[in-house]
Amino acid sequence: MYRNLTDHEIGLLTMQGCSAEDWSLIKVHNHFLPDNIQNVKFSGSIRLNRFSKSVTLFGGITFKTGLYNAWLHNCTVEDNVLIHNVRGYIANYHIDKDSIIQNITTLAVDGETTFGNGTYVNTINEGGGRAIPIFDHLSAHVAYIMTLYRHRNKVIQKLEKMILDYTSSIKSRMGYIGRGSYIINCNTIRNVRIGPATRIDGAKKLENGSINSNTEAPVTIGEGVILEDFIISSGSRINDATLVAKCFIGQGCILDKHYSAVESLFFANCQGFHGEACSIFAGPYTVTHHKSTLLIAGMFSFLNAGSGSNQSNHLYKLGPIHQGIVERGAKTTSDSYILWPAKVGAFSLVMGRHYKHSDTTDFPFSYIIESNDETILAPAINLRSVGTIRDSKKWPKRDIRTDSNLLDKINFNLLSPYTVHRMMKGRDILLNILSLSGEVAREYSYKEMKIRKNALRRGIELYEMAIWKFLGNSLITRLKSAEIHDNLTFLEALKKDSPIGSGKWVDLAGLLCPVNALEKLLSDIENDAISTMEEVKMVINSLHLNYYNYEWSWAYDALESVYGKKITDFTPGDVIAIVERWKKSVLTIDDMLYKDALKEYSDEIMTGFGIDGDDGNVRAEDFRAVIGEPEDNEMIKEILAHKEKKRRLGEEITGLMKNLLEKAKTK
C-alpha cells in the first residue's frame, strides 16, 4: 500500500518549501499527490495518504486538505487530514482520516506512555489510603468497591492487577488522533490519546491523558482548559478555563465556567461549574453550579450542592485525614457547612452549619437543620416535599449519555430496599426514643442531634406510610405481572424468583443491589472465579438487570415481618387488606405533595410580581402571566394523574382478589 517518493515528487515538495532529514524514510500511498503539501519539515518515519477533499472551516472558509506550515516527526497521516500552522511540531502520532489540526503549538508523545491509565487518584480521603488507579473503562461500581472496601485486601489487589494489566497492554510510544477529530487554536498537547470525533478548541494544556470520544458520543474540550493526568469518557464536555488534575471524568459529564478539580472521580452525568472539587468521589448526577462551592474529601451521589456549600476535612491535629459520606439524592442549601467526619442519609436536605459529627444514615428523606450551633433532625419530612419527587423524575430525563456502551448502571428508584430498609430502622429508632423518654419531653437527643417531639411523631407516621407504599407497590406489581386464575396460581405468583435479595442492600454508586449478591462478587474475585474486568462488568450488569427479582425477595421477607403472616399462608383477603393500607398511604402522600406544590402559588410567593401595580390583582395577574395557573403545571398534573392511576390500580387488584374469594366459596 505504501511506496517511496519518486524523484519528481521530492522535487515538487522541495519547490513547495518542504524538507526532510531523509526522504527515504517517507512512505506514501499509491495514489498520493504532493500538491497540497507546503512548507513542511519531515523527520523520522513518515506515512502519508491521499489529500483529495476540501473542508469548510469556521466562518465558511473552504480549505483543501493537506499539510501546510508544519513539522512532522514519526507520524502517520491518513486520508484527507488537514494540518495547518503548527508553531512547534507534531511528533509520534497516528492521525486518522478526516481530522483537522490547525493553529497549535505542540502535539507530541514523549517516550513510553499509558495516556493517563494507571494514574492513582486519592479520592474521598485527601490524606491517602483510598487511592485507586484510573483506566479507560472504570465504572462507578468498580470504583466504589476499590475505594470503600479497603478491608478486603485480596479484592483490591486483584482488581488493581486487572487494571494495571490493561494499562500495560496499551503502553505505547505512539499517540493516536481518531477519525474526524478537530483540534484548533491549542497550545501544548503531550502524551494524550484522542478518540474519534473529538473537538478541541483553544485548550491551553493537555498532558498525560485519554479522551475516549466516539462518533456516538463526541467529547468537547474548550478554550483555556488545562488537563493533567486524566481520563475523559465519551459524551463529556470540558470548557471555559476549567482546571483538572488527576481525575477520571465519566460519561456525559460537564465541567465548565472555571471549575477546578483535583484528585477526584466524576461519574455519569456529573456537572461542575464555577466551584472546586478536591479528593471527591462524585457518583452519578453530582451537580454543583455555583461559585464558592467546595466539595472536598467526600462521597456524593445525585447531589445538588447549593451556592457556597462546603465541608472541612481538617481538625488541625493529624492533617486532612477526615472524610464524609453524603448518600444519594441529598441537597445542601446555600452557605451550608459540614465538619467531617459525618454521614448524611439518602434524599436529605442539609441547611446551616454543622460542627458535630452526626450520622443520619438511618433517617433518609430528612431535614438536617442548624439552630444555635445544634444539629436539628426532622426525620422523613422530605417524603412530603414535591421537590424530592421532581428530582427523581428529572434525573432520567437529564441523562445525556448517547454511547451504546454505558459504563455506569443507574437505578433511579426513589423507594427501594436500600431506602425502605433504612426507613424501617429509622422508624424503630424513633419509636424506641419515644418509649424510653416518654411523652413529657419536648425535645429528644440522638447521636449529637436534637429531634423535636412533633418532628419525631411526624417522622414515625411518614416512614410508616412510605414503607406501606413500597411494600404495596411490590406486591401489586408482582400480582399484575402474573396470570392468576385460582388460589394455586395466586400463591405461585407470590413465590420468590431467587434467594438473592434478602437482608441489607447497598447503593453501589448508582446501582442498587443486595449485600449478599455483592458479597458473592467479592468472594469470586478473591477466589479467582472471576479474573478479568470484563467478567466483573458482566456480573455488575446482571445485578442491575435482576433488580426487580431481587427487590421482590426483599419485599417478600419485609411483608412477612410487617404484616405478621407467612406469605405461603396469604389469602386474597390478606392482599385486599394490604392494598387498602397501600392505597391510603399513597393517596395521603400524594395529597401532601399536592399541598406542597400549591405553596408555590401562595400570596407570599407572588412578592416581587406586579412591580408597578397598586393592588393585589395586578400582582396576581403578573404572576399568572409568568408562572401560569396551578392546573397548568406539569408536576401538579403528574401528581393528580398519579393519584387517579393508583386509585384505579387498587380497585383493579381488589376486584381480582374478590373474584378469587368468590370462586373459593363456590367450590
Give a written overview of the molecule.
The chain is of the alpha/beta class and 667 residues long. Among the domains are: 1-108, no CATH class; 406-563, no CATH class; 572-666. The protein is 33% helix and 28% strand. The protein has a 32-stranded mixed beta sheet that branches. Strands 29-32-35 form a 3-stranded parallel beta sheet, with no helix packed on it. Helix 5 runs antiparallel to helix 6 (453-480), helix 6 (453-480) crosses helix 10 (547-563) and helix 11 runs antiparallel to helix 13. It starts with a strand and ends with a helix.
- Low-confidence spans: none
Q: Please give the number of β-strands.
A: 41
How many H/I helices? 13
Strand fraction equals 25-35%
**For the residues shown, what is the average pLDDT?**
94
Major sheet: 32 strands, mixed
State the end-to-end CA separation: 84 Å
Radius of gyration, taken over Cα atoms and rounded to an integer in Å: 30 Å
Which structural class should the secondary elements be placed in?
A: alpha/beta
The dominant shape is: elongated
Q: Which bin fits the share of residues in helices?
A: 25-40%
Write the layout of secondary structure elements.
Blueprint lengths: L1 E3 L2 H9 L3 E2 L5 E4 L7 E12 L5 E4 L3 E4 L1 E12 L4 E14 L4 E9 L11 E2 L10 E2 L6 H9 L4 H17 L5 E3 L4 E13 L4 E3 L3 E7 L8 E2 L4 E7 L4 E2 L4 E7 L4 E3 L3 E7 L4 E3 L2 E3 L2 E2 L4 E2 L5 E3 L1 E3 L3 E2 L4 E3 L11 E3 L4 E2 L4 E3 L2 E3 L4 E3 L1 E2 L12 E5 L2 E5 L7 H12 L19 H21 L5 E4 L2 E4 H28 L6 H7 L11 E4 L2 E4 H12 L6 H13 L1 H17 L8 H27 L17 H12 L6 H33 L1
Parallel strand pairs: 2-4, 3-4, 4-7, 7-8, 8-9, 8-12, 9-13, 13-14, 13-15, 14-16, 15-17, 16-18, 17-19, 18-20, 19-21, 20-22, 21-23, 21-24, 22-25, 23-26, 24-27, 25-28, 27-30, 28-31, 29-32, 30-33, 31-34, 32-35, 34-36, 37-39
Antiparallel strand pairs: 1-3, 5-6, 10-11, 36-37, 38-39, 40-41
Helix pairs in contact: 3-8, 5-6, 6-10, 6-11, 11-13
